[in-house]
């Protein structure tokens, strides 16, 4: 049985008449009758009871009509989905993001707007560091990434980045810390004797590496006395007086009592949250996301 025969059968069943079904299908009646007979031969049973004024479904015909309609509906849906995927309106996008990305209101705005505009493109989200995302983009295990490129460790050449918004590194310290007695931005060199709190198990190619670079530029290596898995935990340790932290400015949106943030004087403290993708593996779906993300960042 082919799809054409199934469509012919459904038309006859719905019209309950070969002549009307033939007109509906823009066929002459003899070829239609031959196709129905061939279908009945394949099924091994009559599908219609032929009468003078039309036809009536047999029990086998009733079952075939019910399940045939479902099969055609699924086929039409699959065909439509495939066509929309070819136009970049359906499919799957695997999107990575760093821990700081969801803090930005624009991050959730981009995801929400994209899902509303393209409901048939499923977004599969993965929390991963910048260095992990770079590897996954290169290996084609990820389609897009919200990441924070390090100024000292460039991404692979096949990775294209679009800057979304600036998010400079700043000092986070207990509110009664002596360094905060003077107003204004803080110089990195004043932290040389301070205990630092870093992200645990983080690559030197990411934020930790950026902080180490800032310190080394003024002649010291940061003394790391505590590590934590996420930014919220780091801020909690800062509030408890275990040390200071240098984090993206956006972490100031996490309300932790007794923690104050200050900008840094170093021009190298600049940092950007970016959208990255492998330029060798683009798709219509991917570029629609990139376009929407760039527009949302411009409007932010």
UniProtKB/TrEMBL annotation:
- Span of domain HTH lysR-type: 1-58
| PROSITE patterns per UniProt | HTH_LYSR
Note whether Zinc occurs among the keywords.
no
Domain of life assignment: Bacteria
Alphabetized CDD domains for the sequence: PBP2_LTTR_aromatics_like (cd08414)
GO molecular function per UniProt:
DNA binding; DNA-binding transcription factor activity
- Keywords in UniProt for this one? DNA-binding, Transcription, Transcription regulation
**What are the GO cellular component annotations?**
protein-DNA complex
Pfam families tied to this protein: HTH_1 (PF00126), LysR_substrate (PF03466)
What protein family is recorded? Belongs to the LysR transcriptional regulatory family.
Q: Which PANTHER family match?
A: LYSR FAMILY TRANSCRIPTIONAL REGULATOR, TRANSCRIPTIONAL DUAL REGULATOR HCAR-RELATED
> What function is annotated for this protein?
NodD regulates the expression of the nodABCFE genes which encode other nodulation proteins. NodD is also a negative regulator of its own expression. Binds flavonoids as inducers.
According to UniProt, the name of this protein is: HTH lysR-type domain-containing protein
Q: Which organism is it from?
A: Bradyrhizobium macuxiense
């Amino acid at each position: 049985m082919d799809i054409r025969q199934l469509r012919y059968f459904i038309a006859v069943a719905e019209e309950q008449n070969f002549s009307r079904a033939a007109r509906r299908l823009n066929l002459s009646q003899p070829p239609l009758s031959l196709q129905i007979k061939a279908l009945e031969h394949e099924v091994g049973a009559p599908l219609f009871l032929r009468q003078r004024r039309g036809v009536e479904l047999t029990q086998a015909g009733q079952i075939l009509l019910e399940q045939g309609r479902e099969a055609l509906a699924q086929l039409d849906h699959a065909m439509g989905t495939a066509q929309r995927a070819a136009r970049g309106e359906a499919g799957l996008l695997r999107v990575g993001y760093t821990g700081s990305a969801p803090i930005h209101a624009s991050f959730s705005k981009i995801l929400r707007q994209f899902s509303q505009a393209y409901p048939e493109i499923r977004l599969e989200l993965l929390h991963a560091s910048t260095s992990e995302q770079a590897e996954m983009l290169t290996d084609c295990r990820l389609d897009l990434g919200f990441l924070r490129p390090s100024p000292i460790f460039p991404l692979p050449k096949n990775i294209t980045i679009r800057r979304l918004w600036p998010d400079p590194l700043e000092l986070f310290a207990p509110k009664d810390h002596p360094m905060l007695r003077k107003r204004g931005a803080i110089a990195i060199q004043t932290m040389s004797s301070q205990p630092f709190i870093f992200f645990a198990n983080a690559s030197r190619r990411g934020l930790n590496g950026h902080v180490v670079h800032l310190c080394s530029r003024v002649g010291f290596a940061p003394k790391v006395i505590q590590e934590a898995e996420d930014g919220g935990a780091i801020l909690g340790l800062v509030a408890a007086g275990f040390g200071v932290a240098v984090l993206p400015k956006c972490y100031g949106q996490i309300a932790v009592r007794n923690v104050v943030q200050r900008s840094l004087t170093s021009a190298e403290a600049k940092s950007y949250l970016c959208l990255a993708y492998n330029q060798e593996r683009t798709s219509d779906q991917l570029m629609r996301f990139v376009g929407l993300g760039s527009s949302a960042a411009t409007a932010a």
